[in-house]
Hints:
The structure holds 2 protein chains of 2 kinds. Chain A is mainly α. Chain A has 2 domains: 1-59; 60-296, MetI-like fold. Helices cover 74% and strands 0% of the residues of chain A. Chain B is mainly alpha-helical. In chain B, helix 4 (67-74) packs across helix 16 (275-304), helix 6 crosses helix 10 (169-194) and helix 7 packs across helix 10. The two termini of chain B are 27 Å apart. Chains A and B meet through helix 1, helix 4, helix 5, helix 6 and helix 10 of A and helix 1, helix 2, helix 6, helix 7 and helix 8 of B.
Amino acid sequence: MKKRMKFNSDTVFDIVVAVIILAVTLIILYPLYFVVIASISDPAMVASGNVILRPRGINYDGYWYIFRDNRIISGYQNTIIYALFGTILALLITIPAGYALSRKDLPFRNALMKITLFTKFFSGGLIPTYLVVNSIHLVNTRAIIIILGSFSVFNLILCRTFFVNTMSDELREAAEVDGCPTFTFFCRIVLPLSGSIIAIMVLYYAVAYWNSFFNALIYLSDADKYPLQMIMRDILITGQALQADVSDPEAYEQMLRIAQSIKYGVIIVSSLPVLILYPFVQKHFVKGIMIGSLKG
Amino acid sequence: MTKLERQIRKKKTLSLMKKNWVLYVFLVPMLIYLIVFSYLPLYGIQIAFRNYKVTKGIWGSPWVGLEHFRTFFDSYQFWNLLKNTLTLSIYSLIAGFPLPIIFALLLQYCISPKLKKTSQMISYAPHFISVVVYCGMITIFLANNGIVNQILMKLGFDSVHFLSDPKLFKHIYVWSGVLQGLGWGSIMYIAVLTNVNPELHEAAIIDGASKFQRIKHVDIPAIVPTMVIMLITKCGEIMDVGFEKVLLLQNSVNLDYSEVISTYVYKIGILGGQFSYSAAIGLFNNIINLILLVLVNWIARKVSDISLW
């Protein structure tokens, strides 16, 4: 009798757990799904509440307008430049530093680590940072968008933890006995063994650059240097309509009509690279967090 | 330590430094970054105590001591800014801290591996949506004729004016944040739960523990250290309300409830050019953060022996 009760309570538990997980998952999934179906539906159908579960009046007019908009094209180009060069710079800064700080035979290692960690907990704040950037004449340049964000303490700790856990002292000592200098050892032995942490760093930094909006907001004033996220802000939040040929009233009117489906469209278009890559690289992202959690 | 020992030690350190000089070169790019973008601004924070004039530079500007701080404390915005900042962050902490833990536990006890995997895949996804796009989605969905109101009306409820009711701002801000961070925030706990010694669970099962009892006596104790560390870190960020998200969700109607210290600093500093006054407000913000971090860390160390340092 007692055993039967227990079986029942665990079964109820299992069902409740599964139902909650399913419900939460659907709540998270539905907004993403809705954006997709709304972007290809007839805007009038969306506005009248007829598009809830599946697209209606399928058309791709919204996308047609989006891909002809110069601002989106320029934003895309800028973001690709920022993400590409920013990620390269970030790797050059973070990986060697992470390796150096992982070496127990580095004198003053703890002091250097403290200097680095301190910046995570206390900073000068927005205004002094702005004045520094201003004094080195980097305000309103593409360079500042690339440079800022090319280092994060969190990513450094991930790298360091990875190297501490994977690079054995014996391996290094053996190489030293063979007369292999540090730099050669790093390039020939350490880097080839660090594929997974490099992949994680590329993904973390690239996504951060792709989604970054703050630095452009603070430091850029020329619209032709704006990354995609600034353009997205104009379209989605400030509500600026897309560019249209004003000399052609018919096209202009059409554009106003589908302004709402353009919004759904730009959400898809701007998130596309991340969305496409996401299923393939998800495990690397998770692995990064796992490495981080090893040391708390 | 004798003099000789000290000398030997010094020599050893020197020879290690000489041998590993390349490692210092490895650190140079990072140190340059930190000096320029972290330590120079720290040095520049003194403009909070001066009347900064662009033409005179930091050193040439007259020293005014705590005047800017006094002006801020006396200003009519002060209490409102502080109230909004604390409301948003503490509410976020209370709602956003336990839910990823519960979600991790639920996933850990999910009987269907397929559901677990799918749910993880989907719940991590919002983390990768940019803050601009996410706020765009919030404003589109919660508009008067948006999808949320359409569904509400289909279910027979009245429609809600989400965006024009300033009192709803904090709920929108917090719960959209919870939804975005739920899956991602659970990863760390899942990692710890997966590493729990399986013998503990086996022993509990033999002793006749139900799943609920196993959570209580095996899983929760295992994740407590991670929880404490996360809580300390979060408390040290209490004054850091998501600047970008607040700014993007602000509109003329909700400003009384949505203006927080960081957005105010941006507006009067970067947009308004009052560098010294806004730097003082920013410094006030960061000092409160640091005090909270040290305090919570100290409490945690006394109570649980777990701390950041």
